[in-house]
Amino acid sequence: MTPVASARGPIDPRLVRRSRAVRAYLVVSIVLATLVAGLVVAQAWLIASVVSDGFEGSGVTEAVTTALVALAAVVAGRALLGWLHTVVSARAAVQVKQQLRSEVVAQLLGGSPGSTASGSGTASVSSAVSSSSAVVTLLGPGLDKLDPYFAKYLPQLVLALTVPAVVVVSVFVADPLSGVTIAVTLPLVVVFMVLVGYVTRDRTERRWRALVRLSHHFSDVLDGLVVLKVFGRSRNQTKGIAEVGERNRRETMGALRLAFLSSFVLELVASISVALVAVSIGLRLVEGHMTLMTGLFVLVLAPDAYLPLRQVGAHFHDSAEGRAVADDVYAILDAPAGRASRFPAGRASGFPAGRASGASRDHPTLAGATITLEEVSVSYPGRTTPALAATSLTLAPGQVTALTGPSGCGKSTLVDVLMGFVAPTTGRVVVRTADGTTYDLADLDLTAWRAELAWVPQVPGVLAGTVAGNVRLGAPDASDRDVLAALRDAGAPDLHPWRDVHEGGANLSAGERRRLAVARALLRVRRGGAAVMLLDEPTAGLDPTSEQQVRRALRDARVTVLVVAHRRALVADADAVVPLPAPLVVVS
Ligand SMILES: Nc1ncnc2c1ncn2[C@@H]1O[C@H](COP(=O)(O)OP(=O)(O)OP(=O)(O)O)[C@@H](O)[C@H]1O
Q1: Looking at ligand 1, which residue's alpha carbon is closest to its atom 25?
Q2: Are 534 and 402 in contact (CB under 8 A)?
Q3: Which of 37, 303, 357, 467 sits in a 20 to 30 Å window from 516, CA-based?
Q4: Is the CB of 541 under 6 A from ligand 1?
């Protein structure tokens, strides 16, 4: 796993720094906890006074009745404050999760608000969030693990910081010896908590990673289930899933065992400490060195010095998974924008990735622009040969350029570079606008850049909905007539615009999906303002009539066109042909 900058204080400073909701919540929490601390002391004092009055045999006097009413009010007040704290915590959890979810989604989609927040740009995306299944786990059940952090751990932590302090001071004022005893033993509980925390941290992190691995594995198997079934290998996967599931179970049980054990240790330390205070009070009461009222007050109050700390220790386990999740979230948000943006980026699922857009970057208009690739090459880590060897080519405005070459020579990679999905390893893409200004693609706002591109990938993306809805993705405001014309010119007059389309175009043939994507690109040029078309084998698998239609549409588009072509007819139509050399074969 790539190391990520993890924040390991009692409170994750990144959450406090980046979320106003958390800061506001902490302020409210501290106020509520201080009120609770006051009520705890008041409650102990009232109980002590009622009981000592009872022992003195003064009967149910007016003072006793008043104390009992006040005691009832204090108990009700504590209940009310507890309820308020729960409500505030739950609200904060919802707000923070909502904020993190939208920040992560925006970062993955390239909007990158996270990069403007506090991204140092030094962390890299953890391998735990490098696949779509991991992202789904992270944004769904993953972020929900922040609930215990906000609902249980943080309120308790604030109580643990305020209540013991108030209790120690009150006890010290009433009985200095007990005050000193509590003040000396309290840090012991903290020391044990820290020790337990260190052990727990690794355990819970391991458990979270096991859960992510399980979801990865499961999603991979589901993806390949059809192939596995056809080749009779699906049953073998049962064993794999069972093994990963078993590992997850073992990690969960280990984390639970540790949680129970550490609660026991904290209880023990706290009980021994209270016993020390009780023994000293008992002896002094017997010897008559202390009043019953003071003794009772300290005895009732002493456990409350330890209780919040013990509980914070217990809730630390509930929150630990949330902290591991926060690490993954901030690994995405703090990653250099491009790395995170690879998630949705075209075909590419590995490095080198493209980058996210930057709102302040330039965005020249592409109408009439010349796009030049200067010695652009792309190499993927771990590969001995470049995916695209150093290539130079010029896309002249309004011309159709055909890119040819054997399979695997990097044609689609070159298209990915132009789409901004993949950053060149060497070389650069230069844009010379109609007025003669030149720009480097690396400096441009990619969202604006892509808005002027019409793209037909080798495997077109199709969303659930209708044919027309999919075609309109290129130009949402286009009329029905425009959609029909685009479908006709893409050689797809047979595709009814209102026909239902399933997710991924599962109910369309490969040829229908391709023609739908061509229609979408045509509409983007005609009504969406695109000035450049990038098409990756748009006529593969089409019948001669449809192919003829697509070729004509490309010729008539009157924009700059780069078409990856294997078919001779498509190449023959081009104004310029750029052949890429066969990839180097390295035999080791
Ligand atoms: N994400 C990736 N990670 C590593 N290698 C990759 C990645 N994408 C592509 N490649 C490799 O880069 C090389 C070029 O791939 P590319 O898809 O660009 O070729 P192509 O010329 O378009 O091939 P075809 O004509 O078969 O579509 C191939 O060897 C491919 O295996």
Answers
A1: 407
A2: no
A3: 357
A4: no
